[in-house]
Design a protein that fits this description.
This protein has 278 residues and is α+β, with helices and mostly antiparallel strands. The protein folds into 2 domains: 175 residues, C8orf32 fold (Roll); 55 residues, no CATH class. Helix content is 57%, strand content 9%. The chain is built from 12 helices and 7 strands. The strands form 2 sheets. Strands 6-5-4-3-7 form a 5-stranded antiparallel beta sheet. The longest helix has 18 residues. The protein is elongated and about 65 Å long.
């Protein structure tokens, strides 16, 4: 059977848990769901050119803060990238091609771009899945530097992260070691997809939400709620054959959820409809 993600080889690498999938390519593959004519090559070449500009100004022996300062200058001063505070929930803020073209995005999409530039300079950065916000971190010896691409690449320490989150949620925050720890690529991609899912479901754009939900369910096979949402979206869009597997997976994982009887009824109806096609 042909994989539903045959056109997304880097996303498939992530599903297989291969070593170090390319997050930038995954982000562009996700964007291609909404922009089918998207060719990743020009965007990857543009990122390479951006990194080359920074490389010319940051010698090989430069300290991490020097490199970060040059990235910030190129991205946020020369190129004019900024966080979209006027229309935060525009889905274009979550698609890397649109972030590059419009020079605006949300914390996680700007972090993906920032990380891509840093990676090409030999500076490894990891995502930080903070409450209500997303940042990057770079570890050098005993020093950890947090970078906030949504706020022009501000360089923060742990207390600075706590102040930033406190501003967002309106109360003082003490972040745990787990909350500021590096997060895996699967979690970064899950958060990207859930942002899109929330936007499309809020707008009742179920057809556009479906490819997003397919990826979420594949990436989180043990999350019964993602399986439920995939099944329900498929039913909403009159795709009963595709609804069967995720709904059955939900029942197998949680045999007695609160809505088990309703799910069983939907599953029987989907199977009857599919059987009637033969």
């Amino acid at each position: 059977m042909r994989s539903p993600f045959a056109g997304s080889p880097e996303f498939e690498r992530l599903l297989r848990r291969d070593a170090r999938p390319d997050l930038t390519r995954i982000a562009l593959e996700i964007a291609r769901d909404a922009y089918p004519d998207l060719e990743p090559g020009p965007y990857l070449e543009w990122i390479e050119a951006l990194a080359a500009r920074v490389r010319d100004r940051a010698p090989a022996a430069a300290k991490a803060r020097q490199v970060l300062g040059q990235i910030n200058w190129v991205l946020f001063v020369e190129e004019g990238f900024q966080g979209n505070t006027e229309d935060y929930y525009d889905p274009k803020n979550s698609y890397l091609n649109q972030v590059i073209e419009r020079k605006t995005g949300i914390p996680i999409s700007l972090s993906v771009l920032y990380r891509a530039v840093a990676h090409r300079l030999g500076l490894e950065m990891e995502g930080v899945n903070l409450p209500a916000h997303f940042m990057l971190r770079v570890d050098r010896g005993d020093e950890t530097i947090f970078v906030d691409p949504f706020h022009a690449g501000a360089l923060l320490d742990r207390q600075g992260c706590e102040r930033r989150v406190a501003e967002l949620i309106g109360r003082p925050v003490v972040l745990s070691d787990l909350e500021i720890a590096p997060c895996g690529l699967d979690l970064v991609v899950t958060r990207m997809l859930r942002n899109l899912k929330a936007i499309y479901l809020r707008g009742h754009d179920f057809s556009t939400a479906l490819p997003v939900q397919r990826r979420l369910a594949a990436l989180n096979p043990d999350d019964p709620l993602e399986q439920r949402d995939l099944g329900m979206l498929c039913l909403q869009l009159d795709r009963p054959a595709e609804a069967i597997a995720p709904l059955q997976s939900l029942l197998d994982a949680r045999p007695e959820p609160e809505d088990a009887d309703a799910i069983r009824a939907l599953l029987r109806a989907a199977r009857r409809e599919v059987a009637s096609w033969n």
